[in-house]
Amino acid sequence: MEDMMDRIRICDLLARCILGINEGERREKQDVLINLAIYTDLRKAGKSDRIEDTVDYRALKKRVLAMVESSHYLLEEALADAVAELCLGQQGVRQVDVRVEKPNALRFARSVAVEITRKR
Question: Domains (ranges, CATH) in the chain?
């Protein structure tokens, strides 16, 4: 397969979920930011101008939000992996970069993030 250079980015998708190992993190939902780079071939959609020829990022966003907001992972790594699997299940997605960020997870740091890349 040729190198896929086309991608759709979803930037700073805000969700609230249970995420963490500390008692307080297990009790209360907290903000997480999700960034996605969805690798796909956009040439057909670029020529046809038809939604059917691309990845429906609105539908994907809704699925990601629903899954994340009902999740209860201990680790950012596990949440990122679940998001990647969900994205790879969407038709046309060949590869995905997922970044899960927990704002204010560490004192003196704006956030802590985990980034993964998964391929179909």
Answer: 7-119 (3.30.1130.10)
